[in-house]
Design a protein that fits this description.
It is a single chain. The chain is built from 7 helices and 5 strands. The model is unreliable at 93-101 (pLDDT under 50). Helix 5 (117-129) crosses helix 6. The radius of gyration is 21 Å and the shape is elongated. By secondary structure, the protein is mainly alpha-helical. It has helices at residues 2-14, 24-35, 43-55, 77-84, 117-129, 131-146, 151-162, and strands at residues 22-23, 59-63, 69-73, 103-106, 109-111. Strands 1-3-2 form a 3-stranded antiparallel β-sheet. The chain has a two-stranded antiparallel ribbon with strand order 4-5. The chain folds into 2 domains: 2-84, LOTUS domain-like (Nucleotidyltransferase, domain 5), CATH 3.30.420.610; 103-162, no CATH class.
Amino acid sequence: MKEKIEKVLFKKLRELPSNKALLWPDFQVAFDVATGASLSDHLEEVQEVADTLEKSDYARFEQLPNGMPRITKGVDFDKWENEMAPTNPGSSLNIGSLNAQNVQVGDQNTMNVNITPQEFIEALEKLQKDPEKAKSVLSQLNDFAKQGLSFGQTVAKFIGLMS
């Protein structure tokens, strides 16, 4: 259960700006939605996770004057982020028949893309001709961006949606 608590907490803190705090009720709801369990039933494990994270300076736990806890990113949150979501510099992605070479798609990550500028422009022109499809495609691209897809992966999805 401690791993689930840590994972939900990490995800919630990761989506917050550095100057914002995660309030206890928001954490409780996120945990309930993600696991179907009540965080209140696992307070001992929560305390153990909190102690570990504070010791590592990954997160800070404070108590507000009204007694409600709040959680903020710690000084070494970036190290925790690297542990929880490591980058894989050797990954590859097959995106079909696009045409270019060695495109930078992220830190320490390049990808061979086979797409010509003309193919990309044609896909954009298709969007202009069908406003309803454009809304749908843009909504899907927005979802991909929220999922953390790289630029190359997003372009590949875009071309796939337009084919």
